[in-house]
Amino acid sequence: MSQLRLLISYDYFTPAYKAGGPIRSIDNLVQLLGNEISIFIITSNQDHDGTVLDVPSNSWVQYTDNCSVIYLDSSSRNYKSIKMVLNEIHIDLIYINGIFSLFSTINLLRFSKKEKIKVLIASRGMLQQGALAIKSVKKKLFLFFLNRFFIKNNPLVSWHATDEQESLDIHENFGNNQVVSIIGNVPLFTNDKSSFLDYSESVRFITISLIAPKKNHIWFIESLKRISFSDKSIIYDIYGPANKEYLDLILLAAKDLPDNVSVNIFPALSPNQVQSTLKRYHYFVLPTFGENFGHAIFESFNSSRPVLISDKTPWRNLVDKNAGWDLPLNHKVWDETLTEILEMESKQYDLLCKGARTIAIHYIESKNLKVQYLKMFNTVNNSC
């Protein structure tokens, strides 16, 4: 039996890294599947901020033994050019990542309908309520168009959700008749153990994410303003590519902080910098309005670092697991938890670090991700 030939589409791919989680999900998936299937990736030659990547454009590049990538420049991201590119190769199944892209979503759905090729769509958290609330009118119009012309009554389309909530989001937006497979994301997991940090004189918080309204950094900054602090110094460092308007709001919110509190903004980290950076901090913070996975959250667990996050992610019941907090976006609850963190003894903190690492280990050991993904791709490809 010949190998399945899978086409993956997304606007950005390695060496791009500023678009966050989906790039990591796709890259980790390529590494996980190894030589089990043949993979082709169609993407742009830019990063999220418009930076042009140092890669050959408009021709297939060998990425791994069984994966080739084509990075299209701006003049080649139209349907005609994409059709010519894809006609050069034989594809069994298309795996679309993301929703709101003319380039990598609409064009690939057009190609699917014309060539009668099955499509699997991973919404990558873009259908969450918090995500849809941002630029809501524009997104509602896009979803109406997408459903009307490409999804509704289209037997070629099925979906990949990374958890039950994402499956509900898909059904809510496109109807209960949509076929959805639920398999968790593929994170980066390492075996090295992190040393614990001293907790006596300072507490260091970090957020690694897009600096954009959905991530809700200002929520935590406002909590820092309201807390009566001890004599510890409090550091909150934010890493990521910035939405200029939202960055200005963060800087405004960070004014008039207590003398022992500092908020600092840093550029985006490349993937190989994330784990070593996390080890310099006590807690990962993300008061997000919604994540379908949260690769940086997982990498914090992987680095033995507890997290302080909203309850809008798949990582739940963290207090019971002794690995941090997943909190509703309620000011009183966040303020009380922050006070608890600042008054914590080192022994309690060390237990949280061990609990965080346990979550990462359990996720990897329990998911059997390689088998699940291969089964999903082959099942969709062979469906009637």
Description:
The chain has 384 residues and is an alpha/beta fold. Helices cover 39% and strands 19% of the residues. It has 13 helices and 14 strands. The chain has helices at residues 21-33, 79-86, 102-115, 129-132, 136-151, 164-174, 217-226, 244-253, 271-278, 295-302, 331-342, 346-367, 369-382; strands at residues 5-9, 38-44, 60-64, 67-72, 93-97, 118-122, 157-161, 180-182, 202-208, 233-239, 261-266, 283-286, 307-310, 324-327. The protein has an eight-stranded mixed beta sheet with strand order 3-4-2-1-5-6-7-8, sandwiched between helices. A six-stranded parallel beta sheet has the order 11-10-9-12-13-14, sandwiched between helices. Helix 7 crosses helix 11 (331-342) and helix 10 packs across helix 12 (346-367). The longest helix has 22 residues, at 346-367. The relative contact order is 0.12. The mean pLDDT is 93.
Q: Based on DSSP secondary structure assignment, what is the total number of beta strands?
A: 14
Helix fraction by DSSP (H/I, runs of at least 4): 25-40%
Please count the helical segments: 13
Beta fraction: 15-25%
* CATH level-four homologous superfamily name of the largest domain: Glycogen Phosphorylase B
